[in-house]
Design a protein that fits this description.
This protein is α+β, with helices and mostly antiparallel strands. Helix content is 15%, strand content 32%. Strand 17 and strand 18 form a beta hairpin.
């Protein structure tokens, strides 16, 4: 039988062009908005995104909310999973540290080629003991290239520019990974750094800043942006790249408005009348690992040797969202990647036609170097599944094995565990050693059981009697 795995072999000589959409948003403890179509560019006429990265700050982390979110998914995670799962994306990974939340959603086709997924977090608030400030990180191997995403919330106020830099350096130093080739954050092939970085506009007064913004003369403010100033002085920042700030500063706005702060700053006992100066606090930067490290003996690097690159296609703010005093910022990127491996580790598919009334068989094969484990399992998922643990049922690859040869192994799933109503499903092979999905099948149909089909037909007949079709509309009197 020909393998029907979702992720087929890839030509190693061909560069893959992946589209990445990255969001950073300080949501100010608010609940999700009713619609995020424009934020995620879901109505765009161009090619769909391959990956979405969502970095939020100030997610509601009051003690009751936070304890609840430890046991269950938080409202923002549930919201984005509800948006993405019908579109063919699953939540690949997430990490939360109090109000900091980082989510990554990926198209099904890429899942078997993403490995070595790890998360990390570093607290910098209250001298490193409190997680209201700091950074959360997700790193992964994407087609063999190490990619890292870091969402940060750095200290506020214009006078704390040096503290922001110190905290960022601490995050870079503290986050170590168990990989001899990629020990720390700066060792990754690509690093995306984003969040509420809280850098402000120095020296200029509030009236000059607002007048420049009103006239769309943002370039007058760039040289006094604290992050731009720091990049000229600090060596560890100079390899970070950012798109041009061709949008309004994203902080501070009145709620549900595109008007900058009109209220005086509140102190403990009175309002002192001071308004916050607008600033580009919400930023997205990236860093590609120094290509000279991979140069040839003569010190030259040909274009043909370059295996990964990043192109910024769009860097904008979204003024229509007003649930907090920050506006969200998005960056749309093109990742040009030369795959370092050509096939998924596991190829699997359902055997024959599946019927909910019968036991079912799954066939799978692995590459020779695959690190299998007795704790590996194969999950049956609806095609709109949200995350790895959102399976309908599963089979242990060893306990439920019924036959094995040099090329193919078969496992079974009992009819009792198959949904009686049938529908469209797919299979995923989960690797315990790799802590990720190593293979995914094409979607396939499960025919409903006879009892389920008869029950559905009877219900349709009942509905037809109770609710006769009215050919002509009528007005109520």
């Amino acid at each position: 039988m020909e393998p029907r795995g979702l992720a087929q072999s890839i030509d190693l000589e061909i560069m893959k062009n992946l589209r990445l959409h990255l969001v950073t948003w300080n949501v100010g403890t608010a609940s999700p908005p009713p619609d995020v179509t424009s934020l995620l560019q879901l109505s765009s006429q161009g090619p769909s995104m391959d990956m979405y990265v969502i970095g939020l700050q100030e997610v509601n982390s009051k003690i009751i909310n936070f304890l609840s979110d430890l046991a269950f998914d938080d409202p923002w995670s549930i919201f984005f999973m509800t948006v993405f799962s019908p579109l063919g994306y699953i939540k690949l990974s997430s990490v939360r540290m109090q109000g900091l939340l980082l989510l990554i959603f990926v198209k099904h086709a890429h899942i078997p080629f993403i490995r070595d997924i790890h998360t990390h977090y570093t607290r910098t608030g209250l001298y490193g003991y409190w997680g209201n400030k700091g950074g959360v990180t997700i790193r992964m191997s994407l087609y063999g290239h190490m990619i890292c995403f870091m969402n940060c919330h750095l200290p506020a106020h214009i006078e704390n520019a040096e503290q922001r830099l110190d905290d960022f350096e601490k995050i870079l130093e503290m986050q170590q990974f168990e990989d001899e080739n990629v020990l720390n954050i700066l060792d990754h092939d690509i690093l995306f750094w984003f969040g509420d970085l809280n850098f402000r506009i120095a020296d200029y007064g509030i009236h000059f800043v607002r007048e420049s913004i009103s006239n769309s003369r943002y370039n007058l403010l760039w040289e006094k942006d604290q992050l731009n100033m720091a990049k000229k002085k600090e060596a560890f920042l100079q390899e970070f790249i950012e798109g041009p700030l061709q949008f309004k500063p994203t902080y501070k706005f009145d709620l549900h408005s595109d008007v900058y702060d009109t209220r005086g700053q509140k102190t403990l006992f009175w309002f002192n009348g001071k308004k916050r100066k607008p600033a580009w606090t919400d930023r997205i930067l990236w860093r590609v690992k120094n290509l000279s490290q991979h140069s040839s003996e003569d010190g030259n690097l040909s274009v043909g040797e370059q295996t990964i690159s990043v192109t910024l296609n769009n860097y904008i703010s979204h003024m229509s969202y007003g649930i907090s005093d920050h506006k969200p910022v998005t960056g749309t990127f093109g990742l040009q990647i030369k795959p370092l491996f050509s096939t998924p580790l596991v190829t699997l598919n359902p055997e024959g036609e599946w019927n909910a009334a019968q036991d079912a068989l799954i066939s799978y094969s692995t590459v020779s170097e695959f690190p299998s484990s007795t704790w590996d399992w194969i999950g049956l998922y609806q095609v709109t599944f949200r995350h790895m643990n959102d399976y309908v049922t599963y089979a242990w690859v060893k306990d439920d094995e019924i036959s094995s040869s040099e090329d193919v192994t078969q496992v079974y799933i009992s009819a009792d565990e198959i949904p009686h109503a049938g529908g469209e499903f797919l299979l995923c092979y989960y690797s315990h050693n790799m802590q990720s999905i190593a293979g995914m099948s094409q979607p396939f149909q499960i025919q409903p059981s006879r009892r389920s089909a008869e029950k559905e037909l009877a219900q349709e007949n009942i509905n037809g009697i109770e609710k006769p079709h009215s050919p002509e509309p009528y007005d109520e009197i």
